[in-house]
Amino acid sequence: MTDSAVLSLAKNLIKRPSVTPIDGGCQELMIQRLEKIHFTVERMVFEDTTNLWARRGTKAPLFAFAGHTDVVPSGPVEQWHTPPFEPTIIEGYLYGRGAADMKGSLAAMVVATERFVAENPIYTGSLAFLITSDEEGSFINGTTRVVDTLVKRNEIIDMCIVGEPSSTNVVGDVIKNGRRGSITGDLIVKGIQGHVAYPQLARNPIHQVLPALAELASMLWDNGNEYFPPTSFQISNLAAGTGVSNVIPGNFQVQFNLRFSTELTADNIKSRIYAVLNKHNLEYDLAWTFSGYPFLTDTGTLLDAVVTAVDEVNNQKPQLLTTGGTSDGRFIARMGTQVIELGPVNTTIHKVNECVSIANLEKLSNMYQKVLKKILAQ
Fold it and tell me: Which of 102, 213, 226, 232 is the most exposed place for a label (fewest CB within 10 A)?
């Protein structure tokens, strides 16, 4: 049996090993397809990261598909049913690293665009693709730098679908119309090292900071809102000591993260944490890593089009959620862009034996094509 256009492209992408930040030729494969339908292509390489910006048309509104060709490592190869970079079909599912996250989405996007352009060679506005090989990694030289480049030349994306695997049970049952912000603190509490038998000659930083950490962990940061759960403070890593039982450590390292709603800003979070630490008279250093502001698309043309398209394919409207981790949507949203995440079921992402339903991929491509028609077709 001949593969469908979506399945064939998905298999061709999966067979190209592309562990972050390696692209493995995936973007060149997409470029070949997009240039055939008259996209203007820019290859944006920043340091070790390969990025693609492709556009068809010059007028507003500018609609973009966004995604990534990089994947996480395969993990223990011996635990896979089939080799992770040999796409394999088993009982209606396509197996391989990146099948769901997110080479399947990329294939659905490209084929949906090809079909839309064939039916609508002239349309209102412009179509674009923003693809990176750095989403699963440090996110330094990927989408964020492409966005910076576009903003400098006043090329603003009006609407964007990110193909992250948003669905829970069947494709389109959940779409992400926003994401929480994320900020990480690396705290070093300074004490004085000494012998445990002579505590009066030392200062134990663990004992000093525990009341402050307990206060931060129990703090009500906000109540959330209609779209976001309350902000969460979580301690992720602790380190202290020399490995022996008779030495009071000189330093205590604490790493914590907050996933925050639109009720807070990064500056507000920082000021509240500094206030608690200072109240407990701690000597410390604190470094911050800011991963992105929360974003939300609660109204607008894109949300209406996506909800309607999903309903037409599934005969059921999608649930709107902002749960989960961060995505590159946070960088695109900085432009004032309407951003929605719509992609495959996320049950197997980042796991061995990652897979995606072939039927769901076909539905996803159909959803994407319907969105294009609703937004751009004359």
Answer: 226
Is the distance from CB of 63 to CB of 158 less than 8 angstroms? yes
Average pLDDT for 138-144: 92
Helix (H, G, I), strand (E, B) or coil at 64: strand
List all residues 6 or more positions away from 285 whose beta carbon is below 8 Å from its beta carbon. Answer: 187, 188, 190
Based on C-alpha coordinates, what's the Rg of the chain? Answer: 24
Place of tokens 């049950």: 347
pLDDT in tens, 255-266: 999 999 999 999
pTM: predicted TM-score of the whole model, two decimal places: 0.90
The answer to whether residue 312 is catalytic is: no
- 326-347 pLDDT tens trace: 899 999 999 999 999 999 999 9
44 preceded by a cis bond (ω within 30 of 0)? no
**Is 70 an active-site residue?**
yes
Q: Where are the beta strands (DSSP E) in 17-125?
A: 40-46, 49-56, 62-68, 88-90, 93-95
- For the chain, the maximum distance between any two Cα atoms, rounded to a whole number of angstroms, is 82
Long-range pairs, 23-27, Cβ under 8 A, ≥24? 23/50, 23/69, 23/70, 23/133, 24/69, 26/69, 26/103, 26/106, 26/133, 27/52, 27/69, 27/131, 27/133
∠ CA 220-329-41, rounded to 5°: 165
- Quote the CA–CA distance of 252 and 183 in Å, as a whole number: 20
Beta-bridged to residue 260, according to DSSP, are 181
∠ CA 305-311-317, nearest 5°, is 95
